[in-house]
Amino acid sequence: MWNFPLLPDQASTFAGRVDGLYFFLVALTAFFTVMISLMVAFMAIRYRESNTKVNRDNPLPENPTMEAVWIGVPLVIVLVIFFWGVNIYFAIARPPANAVDMYVTGKQWMWKIQHPTGQREINEIHVAVGQPVRLTMISQDVIHSFYVPAFRVKQDVLPGRYSQLWFEPTKPGIYHLFCAEFCGTKHSGMIGRVVVMESADYERWLAGGSSNGGSLGQTMADAGAQIFEAQGCITCHKMDDASRAPILKGLYGKSVALNGGETVIADEQYIRESILRSGAKIVAGYGPIMPVYQNRISEDELMQLVSYIKSLGGPATGTPAATPSAAPASETKGTPAAAKPAQNVNEPSRNK
Question: In this structure, which CATH number among 1.20.120.1770, 3.50.50.60, 3.90.1300.10, 1.10.760.10 belongs to the domain 220-337?
């Protein structure tokens, strides 16, 4: 009857660290609230109008010791809070290299999840205990917010832009998933769950396929390779110097030189943009020949194309690379993705 926990379970590697900072702030607030309240009460009683026994002379105009304490103590407290918070922030913002990549699409009013091995889920994510997971997320409509209280993670999910979040579960169980941003009339129904399983159970679940009707046997990279070929991207994005468009092999995570002298990092957002708006960022040495794919392919297909391009190699990505056969066409900002004719994508320029 009285089982009403004030806090959810601590079920991720940094849940305890977040709670530690939270309880420190609560204790600090309580301490100063009590101290100031007692001082106000003491002063009000001691210096009440009817008390004629107290010395009411003006205080000394200067008190260096009091001034030093008044400045030094709050400064130290604020610096402790700052560095403590920064340390936690960087831990949450930097996924490890061995994190498994999963892709999440938010829409009114559900969460759609794609596993790198091909499984798809709706309002449910199966993960293995002790395995870091990195989520690349986007919204199809309005702003949502992906929130798992037990993991102490929350990240806004925006339309037109990828956002990322990672966590490492520490104990098996089923944990609530919420949308923490008001997103319409059925916002309260945009809920789900994260199912954390032992490694052996998770492997059996993967072997059994998707719990929400997803296809078996085709990874996201394989699906992206099929889209890449179906859209004719391979016509221009070849794997040799004869390519009319940037070579995509090894592109992901690299610095890309653009026309105009700028450089960008070929991350997920760059690839997505180069597919949708191919002329936004054109790779140095190439012309604007790739068509745009805005409103021509879905977010799910975009994520599959991004997964395929990542599988072609580059700096450590956190998910084992698949080995598709062709490279995708450029994306919005000059990065390869799905496109028929070759286009400018953000890739290192080739020597002429």
Answer: 1.10.760.10
